[in-house]
Amino acid sequence: MITxxxxxxxxxxxxxxxxxxVDLPPSEExxxxxxxxxxxxxxxxxxxxxxxxxxxxxxxLAAPQIGLSKRMLAVHFTDFNEKLYSYGLFNPRIVSHxxxxxxxxxxxxxxxxxxxxxxxxPRYARVTxxxxxxxxxxxxLRLRDxxxxxxxxxxxHLNGVMFYDHxxxxxxxxxxENAKPLD
Length: 183
Ligand SMILES: CNC(=O)c1cccc(C)c1Nc1nc(N2CCN(c3ccccc3Cl)CC2)nc(N2CSC[C@H]2C(=O)NC)n1
Ligand code: NI
Fold this sequence. Notes:
This protein is of the alpha+beta class and 183 residues long.
């Protein structure tokens, strides 16, 4: 079971590496790891389990955050329209995106960052992702708003990018150009 002791914190160089593609079809080992990452997210959103194991709640987790420089990520959340997103993905990539940007007006948090880093994180408002899922199927996901934000945050981890790299250091709460606020 993944707990907070398994989560790599900022400062560890692995979080700044470009992670390697995984071989397909995914090995049993990589499938088990990705299942564990998904289970972490579910556990972290269950009050009893979260309290018992002192987990930080999250809706996304990328393999570099547990010390594996592999292009694997898990997400588990329901969006504003009550649509459930629960995926373990191998080799996810953004194949197209909107010009329009979006940002969480509350800023972003990260399981690998044990501090608040205030500021708007401008991201694409809509993205199309292609990847291979836990069953080994090629999936194509058209995402918008919160779902688009989460997937971009996690794909950033596969490219060594942290959310605060996107925050304007001169004015963290400046309205990003051509961007819609997400409350
Ligand atoms: C600094 N201000 C803030 O963090 C912030 C502050 C307010 C609102 C938002 C919306 C903020 N922003 C933000 N809130 C989240 N959560 C909201 C609470 N939730 C959760 C909490 C408890 C139980 C179940 C759940 Cl579901 C867990 C997820 N998650 C992310 N991110 C950035 S994209 C990846 C994702 C992630 O999983 N991070 C660990 N950002
Ligand atoms: Ni993160």
